[in-house]
Input
Amino acid sequence: MRAPSIPAMLLAAGRGERMRPLTDATPKPLLVVQGKPLLQWPLEALARGGFDRAVVNTAWLGGQVAEMFQSIFTVQPSSNMDLSLLDQERPVKTMQIHYSHEGQDFGGALETAGGIARALPLLCPPPAGAATPADGVFWVLAGDVFAPDFVFRQADVDRFMASDRLAHLWLVPNPEHHPRGDFGLAPDPGSVGDTALALNLPDDDPHQRYTYSTIGLYRAALFAPPWCDIAPGNPHGVKAPLGPLLRAAMDQRRVSAALYTGRWADVGTPQRLEQLNALQ
Output
């Protein structure tokens, strides 16, 4: 019997200030990259991997995102699809999408950790009669990153669930606009495959850093004490970044990572968007 599918959290609530004026009337996740809305790329990749549930958070012009993708998203193999990317045991299927409308509920985005905490009841529904979300596992990825070669694999989920880690991140070589990177990597003697420990390196540490791709696997426990003090479901709309939670967990050797070397771009400026579209 195959393992049950886990949900994915797609972060799509940002204002996209650096993308203005393109984002004045269009939310950043709906900007077209190589013929598709940016958010459609990860949704299709998740579906190819056999993952059938997603939560999308929204704020700026969030109604447009919900109107575009609705509550059901279906991917059909096309003539130019790389069939090697398909999970043969988890065929392409229909995905169910829920929305966490931060702009509608709180007047604006709650930042990364605040947004994930808000969406936890949708990602990990509380057991019957309980008020606290279950301690589940889910994907997290940014809706404004282009990574068409990334493959969402159940094997990675299984390996993560068998570990004691709170998060598993995919890091990428540093792009020109982020030369110092974010986190280091260190061998993990107890790991399997290409998994390493993610390191929270001091600013003056000379070791190589890599950039967080914004793709990762997470446990709900990272968004509860002692790592996070936001109330379950973030009912008060607390704004909080994700970085401090990850760094605290790294200091306790609770975050693993792997290096991803496929195509990847942070679509953060009109110039980068133009460059990507020129590659079609």
Q: What stands out?
A: Residues 8-278 form a domain with the Spore Coat Polysaccharide Biosynthesis Protein SpsA; Chain A fold (CATH 3.90.550.10).
